[in-house]
Amino acid sequence: FGGFRYPINGSPLTNEGMQDMSLFLHYKNDNQQRPLVTNILKDNHYRKLYLAHIRTIVEENFSNGWYRERATAIRQMINEEVAKEPQRLYDMAAYEQNLSQSVKIDNSTIIGLTELMDARAQQILAHPLMQKPAPTLDTPDVTVKGTDATFTVSATEATDAYIYHRTSAFAPWQRTTLNASDGQWTATIPAATAQHYFVVAENKYIASCLPRRAGREYLELVVK
Fold first, then answer.
1. Fewer CB within a 10 Å sphere, N or C end of the chain?
2. What CA–CA distance (Å, rounded) separates 224 from 221?
3. What CA–CA distance (Å, rounded) separates 167 from 10?
4. pLDDT tens digits for 177-211?
């Protein structure tokens, strides 16, 4: 949120550089000092999944104005204590201003919260890949027969689809490819391995998840 202007070596980012910073910064530059994100984004599937999660984060928190409401509520809660704090590193004028505009703290400039994120959210959603039609997913139909569960999903604008599943909370996720047939995507897997699951559909440009916060949120297998 603007407190650190050195994502790579060199000069610090300007306000505009922070607002417009590439979604693929370290991957695009093949930054060997950031091997985790660089190598994950080299995988086409994970790169599309990353974009899907970025879209969800922006739409649920920033482009809808929710973060402004949350920031205002936090400020109202802490205003009195901030005013009484004898060891604070900035004056009250800077505290008041920094919600919406940049302030100088010693030799540093701290960009305003809304100054950064309003422009950043707009820039992210205007990215060419975000403008491409994303797959749409319907809630899976699940049939359990014996020890197996068959998942059937309707998806449009998709070239590939997958079900991520695990045996229990905190177990590692496994990924199984769904097979396409007349607009439906299906897979049969052992029910015991799919107590939790979510679905991902992708095309050439981007992926979609169901639930949208897939991984953090998931569906549970219910045997009727």
1. C
2. 10
3. 46
4. 999 988 899 999 999 999 999 999 999 999 999 99
